[in-house]
């Protein structure tokens, strides 16, 4: 599946690193069975009720949707919250943890995913930088104040066929108004980003101590390039290397880096076996 020369390059990059930086996009969760919403048709395949109404992803994933049709918006996000709670992370997450455990500087995670799968797979909260927030945290829709709280107390009941919330709307504990996920949405000037800012500051302090960081970028495309920008900035600022795993867009610019065209879980497993054999 992976050409031998690329496989050996990936192993060498792992062996020379003193710290692991995991940079993950939507492709990281696909092998766990999570949708990546590639294009309107792909999105509507997973949410046919929104397809029948011709509501694209950017329209439902917006504060405006919560203001105009809160039961529909919470039908979408409530379903996603329950899906992420019920999803078991694939074996690749465990492989990354095993690699990180062998490095002096351990690891840090940068992800645009809002699903909380890294924490569910055993990564510590202090290792995380969720640049778009997390569906597992809530904020006031207004917002009435700078408050973010866990979503652990809500269990949305959703009519999946209609993509509509049946249980009561989640409410802000401070003003009683509608609550929304603490996620950076489209056209979103109300997102409370202090949790993300704290994660970013902690990650930058950690990176400052790394001498030979390896960025393993997984499933991050160019359509929404947040993860790719982070990867490139990190290898440039901290003299690191890049291992890019991407089924459709695996190319890298530097000869010292490596790109692998493969799904996340399969690529990590093959590299892991070669890494174990080389030690």
From TrEMBL:
Keyword Transferase attributed: yes
Pfam families: SIR2
Keywords: NAD, Transferase
Broad class of enzyme this protein falls into: transferase
Membrane spanning stretches: none
Domain Deacetylase sirtuin-type: start-end pairs: 1-276
Presence of keyword RNA-binding: no
Signal peptide: none
EC numbers on record: 2.3.1.286
Entry-linked PROSITE patterns: SIRTUIN (PS50305)
Name of this chain's protein: protein acetyllysine N-acetyltransferase
Organism annotation: Undibacterium griseum
